[in-house]
Structure formats: structure tokens, C-alpha cells
Amino acid sequence: MDLRKNLRFHVHFRSSFSSVGMVGGEGDIVDLSISGCRIESVTDVPPGASLEVRIVTKAQESPIQIQQAIVRWKRGRQFGIEFVTMDTGEWARLQHTVEQIEMEPYERDVQAANRDNSS
Fold first, then answer.
1. Number of Cβ atoms within 10 Å of the Cβ of 23
2. Domain boundaries in the chain?
3. CATH C-level class of 9-118
4. What pLDDT was estimated at residue 107?
């Protein structure tokens, strides 16, 4: 049974993460929600670790900064984190990013319908 509160969306964003004195590395975010994400990385990150995370959503924009995220699980090269603390502006950027991802399939369908109707 899946107990997640928020929908997760398949993505491919670069990320970097660090923890004071424990771990630091980079990885690929493979799914994202407004409350957390799954990261694939060669860096060994233990469950329970508190991380600062930076998510690169677009090359021309600064990364979204998560001040504190907790590693909730680890399987192989993947681990799941829950976002705990972030600045209000960063929270708004994350919400906007997730909303855009959620709208993408609908927007593609509308664009395809508009092309079909204009032919």
C-alpha cells in the first residue's frame, strides 16, 4: 500500500546534496513531489541523514534550494528524501515546477488537438 500524501511525477533533474561532516554528492532526481523526491546516485547516503539539497530544473535558472531534507529510505543506488525546511520563495518555485510538470500531459494533448483542428 502506498502511503504518500502527494503525487510524484517522473522527472530527470540534476541535484547536489550535502550534510555537515557526513556526506556530499550529486545525483539524478527521478521522481518529484512537493514533499519529497527520489534520487539516484553513486554516493552512499544513510537513512536518517539530514541533507541540504539543490535541484537544477532549468539550466538558465538557479537551483531550487532545500535547506533540510531527511533521507527516509535507501535501496541500491536510490534513496528517498522528504523535504523538511525551505525558504518561502524556494517553496513557491518548487510548487510552480511541480504544477508545470503536472500540466505537461494536458498541455501536449491540447496542442495536438489544436494542430489537428487547424489542418
1. 16
2. 9-118
3. mainly beta
4. 52
Residue whose C-alpha cell is 552512499? 44
Do 69 and 50 contact (CB within 8 A), yes or no?
A: yes
Instruction: Kindly state the cell numbers that stand for 61.
Output: 535558472
- pTM for the whole thing? 0.79
Q: Which ranges of the chain does DSSP label H, i.e. alpha helix?
A: 88-118
Of 22 and 38, more confident: 38
Strand 64-75 vs strand 23-32: parallel, antiparallel, or unpaired? unpaired
One-letter amino acid for residue 73 of the chain: W
AA identity, residue 97: T
User: Distance (Å, rounded) from C-alpha 11 to C-alpha 29?
Assistant: 7
How many Å is the maximal CA-CA distance in the chain?
61
